[in-house]
Task: inverse folding
């Protein structure tokens, strides 16, 4: 496909890298010459220096032959105008990133339908949803749901005390009769391993598993990550009363969490107190540990830091974990800190640009691919693919199929049941297959199921 991307910031660069690597013809327009030069030097893209909301530059970028236009600059108005112009050129698919303009909910002045835009993605919504998924599951640092939530994809960090430490895949397979899950990837430093029989899980590794939602309590017990047995609501501290912090607090209080939101701006505290019915609002700085201890941070099940400053999020999370918080989740925007923070002891890091890019990629690839998730700190992806009824890969054991190297089938949802994939498993028309794939193998996986 011919794809035109407006904006060479973090989201635009990430999308260019993924889509160009898959063989799409990608053109990038940006007003910043240095950003554009960097993208052209590192990626297989055509760069055009100019205003992405200008018809002159859109025509230079081949707007008349474009299949998909994606506008992801830092200016909402530019993104929307670029999509409106794309509509006049009859571009089939138009996507815009919108941060501040109200476009959803009752009474919204601007909606996707009114603007004629196929997908409006708000990074704040995407990152809030991801943080809530992580915070509501014990012990995980990454989570994605497939098959309407039936299949869970979960990331766990392995410490020296973990029951899985020093187990080989072959040994783990012997106990999987009691615990139905499959380890689909091991991250060791910057290396991502798709494990085979002799591969061993080591202390310091991060592992990713597929499991059915109904099996999670048993798996949590195996990994010694059960929820606290205290008869109280899960206690959550949120640092940062901006839009993301407000969204997280609002949703967590609705599902029964004991929420305390820490904000240093008095006027914002008063505003939040009028909007949040059950959340305790604390006027304090994130490093005011005495106030946080007085409010019970040492018994917190999770501490979530979502200020606009990465360093503040990381340092305050580490400080609260040192004083007893069981888990910490930090919002981290800078790519160089995204990989560093977990090595310091942060349990989970969430990137707003990866969350937004993942939502866009999922929409771009819709069709046989039903759902897609991007792995934080890695270029790997998880795909949910539907098997076509006329596919020649059905009724053949997986061990006899030439499945792409660098990818592994984790779970299969049949019409009336599911199973964790083995070599003897066969696919049927209509099955929904969840696949973990390294970046270079994604196009091969798509061709395999096509």
Result:
């Amino acid at each position: 496909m011919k794809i035109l991307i407006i904006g060479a910031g973090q989201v635009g660069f990430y999308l260019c890298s993924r889509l160009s690597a898959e063989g799409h013809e990608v053109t990038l327009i940006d007003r910043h010459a240095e950003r554009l030069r960097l993208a052209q030097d590192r990626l297989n893209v055509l760069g055009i220096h100019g205003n992405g909301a200008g018809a002159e530059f859109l025509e230079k970028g081949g707007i008349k032959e474009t299949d998909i236009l994606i506008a992801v600059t830092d200016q909402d108005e530019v993104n929307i105008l670029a999509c409106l112009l794309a509509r006049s050129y009859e571009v089939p698919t138009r996507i815009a990133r919108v941060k501040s303009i109200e476009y959803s909910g009752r009474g919204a002045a601007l909606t996707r339908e009114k603007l004629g835009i196929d997908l409006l993605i708000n990074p704040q919504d995407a990152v809030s949803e991801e943080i809530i998924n992580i915070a509501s599951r014990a012990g995980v640092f990454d989570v994605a749901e497939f098959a309407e939530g039936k299949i869970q994809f979960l990331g766990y960090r392995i410490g020296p005390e973990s029951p899985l430490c020093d187990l080989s895949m072959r040994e783990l397979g012997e106990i999987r009769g009691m615990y139905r899950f499959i380890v689909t990837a091991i991250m060791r430093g910057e290396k991502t391993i798709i494990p085979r029989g002799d591969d061993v899980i080591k202390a310091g590794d991060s592992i990713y598993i597929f499991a059915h939602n109904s099996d999670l309590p048993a798996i949590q017990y195996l990994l010694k990550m059960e929820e606290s047995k205290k008869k109280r609501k899960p206690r959550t501290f949120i640092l940062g009363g901006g839009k993301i912090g407000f969204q997280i607090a609002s949703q967590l209080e609705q599902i029964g969490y004991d929420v305390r939101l820490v904000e240093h701006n008095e006027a914002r505290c008063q505003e939040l107190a009028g909007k949040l019915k059950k959340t305790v609002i604390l006027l304090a700085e994130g490093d005011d540990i005495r106030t946080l201890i007085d409010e019970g941070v040492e018994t917190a099940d999770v501490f979530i830091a979502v200020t606009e400053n990465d360093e503040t999020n990381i340092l305050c999370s580490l400080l609260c974990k040192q004083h007893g918080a069981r888990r910490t989740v930090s919002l981290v925007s800078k790519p160089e800190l995204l990989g560093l923070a977990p090595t310091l002891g942060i349990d989970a890091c969430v990137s707003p640009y990866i969350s937004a890019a993942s939502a866009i990629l999922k929409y771009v690839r819709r069709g046989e691919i039903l759902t897609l998730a991007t792995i934080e700190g890695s270029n790997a992806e998880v795909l949910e693919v539907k098997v076509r009824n006329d596919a020649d890969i059905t009724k053949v054991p997986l061990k006899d199929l030439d499945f792409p190297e660098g990818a592994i089938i984790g779970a299969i949802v049949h019409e009336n049941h599911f199973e964790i994939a083995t070599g003897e498993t066969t696919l049927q028309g209509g099955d929904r297959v969840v696949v973990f794939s390294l970046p270079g193998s994604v196009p091969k996986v798509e061709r395999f199921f096509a």
User: Anything to note?
Assistant: DSSP finds 16 helices and 22 strands in the chain. The chain has a mean pLDDT of 86.
